[in-house]
Amino acid sequence: MAHKAFTYTLTQADKDYCLHHAQKMAEGFPTYSFKNREHKSLDVYNIGKIGEFAFFKFLREQQARGLLKITHVPFRASYDQMNFRDDYVVEINGREVQIEVRTKGRSVAPQPSYQCCTDSIKPHFVYVFVSFNKQTDVVSVLGYANWENFRHHATVTFKGNANSNFTNKVNEFNIEIQHLHDIEAFAR
Question: Is the pLDDT of residue 178 over 60?
Fold first, then answer.
């Protein structure tokens, strides 16, 4: 990898905490798991919460160094309603930044040519990409992309395209890990 990822190994307490929040999300509002072809998919929410949890560990280190201020985290008491501002919100040099964390569960360590994806790009968001190795419980905060980065490096897979694993249900924007901005430069 051209730049260093922030890595964190989950403890059992961490996994329990993420699963607790994932269960509350699955009970709160439905989503669809393409993997399991079911609504209220716990696996989708759990992997997402694991990524958000690891990114929180990274943000807390940055906050302790005085590089940013965390103003909102996406862990809450109730998930009964969708909250479209339920991402991380941080303040960097007096500017508010909304961050969407995208996590992919894998059974191998991430490689520079591996792709990260999101099904939407909002130009004012920053997208942080995380890889969760389900075999080792190592979570890697790989890097981030903003609108300019997506414009220069992302490719689009359109709804209906088929590969050997599945058919895309939505448009998807893909960017290789090697083209992400270095996570260590995030708050600079």
Answer: yes
